[in-house]
Amino acid sequence: MIEKKAEIDRTISFLNIASRNAQVLLDQALKPLNLNTSNYYFILKIAGHADLTQNQLFNLIHLDHSNVTRRLDQLMQLGMVTKIRSTKDGRQWRLSLTDSGLALVPQIEQAVTAVNAKFFHRLTPVQVQTLTVLLTHLQEE
After folding, report:
1. Which residues contact residue 111 at a Cβ distance below 8 angstroms, ignoring those fewer than 6 apart?
2. pLDDT of 116-137, one tens digit each?
């Protein structure tokens, strides 16, 4: 544990700076696709889960309902996502990608891969894997 007052927020500060740097790189890479760090992963999550409901999406991305709804509305206005009321449960909404949303998936994956390579270029693959495991532990409740 860090004991010096001058260093008490050092780790959190480094995490925040790294996160901002990664977001800037990713926003730049996603801009030509009319996407950003706030909405691209919705497309990837919807593409990766057949028959996904809006409630299931809430659980996958760990954001509050209003943020998810706002991002989905943006993606629907852009013609990338559709939301249809479930025939099984009228309270549920089924999410799917439009043809244009589906066409973006490989481009998003390519952009994210390029950003990962650029962002983590100073780390070895083992270090990236270790960092990923450590960050996963911090997400556990």
Report:
1. 26, 29, 30, 33, 40
2. 999 999 999 999 999 999 999 9
